[in-house]
Amino acid sequence: MGGDESIVQAARVSYGRGTKTVSEDRNLIRYLMRHCHTSPFEMVEYKFHIKLPIFVARQWIRHRTANVNEYSGRYSVMPDEFYVPSPEDVRTQSKTNKQGRSDEPIPEEIANEFIQDLQETQNLLYEKYNNYLSKEIARELARINLPLSTYTEWYWKIDLHNLFHFLELRLHPTAQYEIREYAKIIAQIVKETCPIAYQAFEDYRLNSVTFSAVELKILKNMIQYKLPTFEEMLEMGLTKREVEEFFTKISFINNFK
Ligand SMILES: Cc1cc2nc3c(=O)[nH]c(=O)nc-3n(C[C@H](O)[C@H](O)[C@H](O)COP(=O)(O)OP(=O)(O)OC[C@H]3O[C@@H](n4cnc5c(N)ncnc54)[C@H](O)[C@@H]3O)c2cc1C
Description:
- This protein has helices at about 5-15, 20-35, 55-60, 110-135, 140, 160-170, 175-195, 195-205, 215-220, 230-235, 240-255; strands at about 45-55, 65-70, 90-95, 100-105, 150-160.
- By secondary structure, it is mostly helical.
- Among the domains are: about 50-155, Gyrase A, domain 2; about 210-255, no CATH class.
């Protein structure tokens, strides 16, 4: 529901109607993103119908600012559908990130053994599940031993401000590969439906970094004051306002005690 124009429309309530050219709308959205004026982004809403393995759903559900309605394993029979990673996605434990996998491939025979084992267990557990159901054991109990790789589905509704927060966390290389793949598809949808806001998100949040106080001290020592001129910065793609804000940031580093 909505798009870039809904963000602009909401913002103009607080900033006045004024001008309305495309470039001014773009500058306004980018200004809002830079300065964390987040509420206009809440005017855009997305509703997704998502099918996902339960282990991905457990990570996803931690994002509390969405509305969710999930398939019920108490009410309905769980589907005979399980996630199995591709052999190239079976990797060793990362040595640098305790929560993640490395880029190191695992020997092919171990990857294949793992995948085959997953499939055998999934089939066995589903067979047992069906058997419990046939003996009239309640669905809510019969399902409790199904694996985390079982697919579930849900409707997930969220506004753009909170979706950007989700994307920032789940597009990050430290997020688990499987949830990152979903985040990439959602990012593509946002890019197509709110192109200006998504570009601002990429520029000011996703691909930006913040510096701590100590890091600023280090930067202060490092910076060579060979700044491009005002005009050169405009040619590099900054707006006048961004150049002014950049000078303010630079002077902040310079005055940092
Ligand atoms: C790489 C990675 C690893 C993780 N590892 C773990 C782990 O090992 N164990 C684990 O338990 N979790 C883990 N998490 C989940 C993480 O701690 C967060 O719960 C999750 O990312 C959702 O973030 P959030 O709370 O900011 O988002 P949301 O729930 O969408 O909330 C957005 C913001 O709204 C505010 N907010 C929302 N609800 C409340 C509330 N009830 N009270 C106060 N403020 C609220 C907060 O400011 C919050 O930042 C991991 C997440 C990532 C990305």
